[in-house]
Amino acid sequence: xxxxxxxxxxxxxxxxxxxxxxxxxxxxxxxxxxxxxxxxxxxxxxxxxxxxxxxxxxxxxxxxxxxxxxxxxxxxxxxxxxxxxxxxxxxxxxxxxxxxxxxxxxxxxxxxxxxxxxxxxxxxxxxxxxxxxxxxxxx
Length: 139
Fold this sequence. Notes:
- Strands 1, 2, 3, 4, 5 and 6 form a 6-stranded antiparallel β-sheet that branches.
- This protein is globular.
- About 20% of the residues lie in helices and about 40% in strands.
- The two termini are about 25 Å apart.
- The protein has one domain (about 10-139): Thiol Ester Dehydrase, Chain A (Roll).
- It has helices at about 30-50, 130-139, and strands at about 10-20, 60-70, 80-85, 95-100, 110-120, 125.
- The longest helix is centred in the first third of the chain and has 18 residues, at about 30-50.
- By secondary structure, the chain is of the alpha+beta class.
- The model has no long low-confidence stretch (mean pLDDT about 95).
- The protein contains 2 helices and 6 strands, in the order E-H-E-E-E-E-E-H.
- A hairpin with a 5-residue loop joins strand 3 and strand 4.
- It comes from Melaminivora suipulveris.
- This is Thioesterase.
- It holds the Pfam family 4HBT_2.
């Protein structure tokens, strides 16, 4: 089932990466769990670019929910294009959405997924309001 991305999403980052031989499973295609690593890679690259690195003694982002729709099998070798979108900033959370394509087949989705991110005060182990600069990045 294809999950529709919200109309009001904002493209914030994209990156390419190569499928590694070890990403495949016994069936000869990329293992389902690896798709979550791909989505994590583009999400972390963007968060680092905007200065949202988690500070263990401070605050930062935590994923509280993640999902993926597997639309087509990906096999080695392949170079992937991952696009990261953001949407729906709330008091303490925002949504991220990722699409995965093969670079040699632009516009053909192989997977799409997302994650709900919550902003956390790590020492207190409590949600806290999104900082203004982060709210601006996801609005």
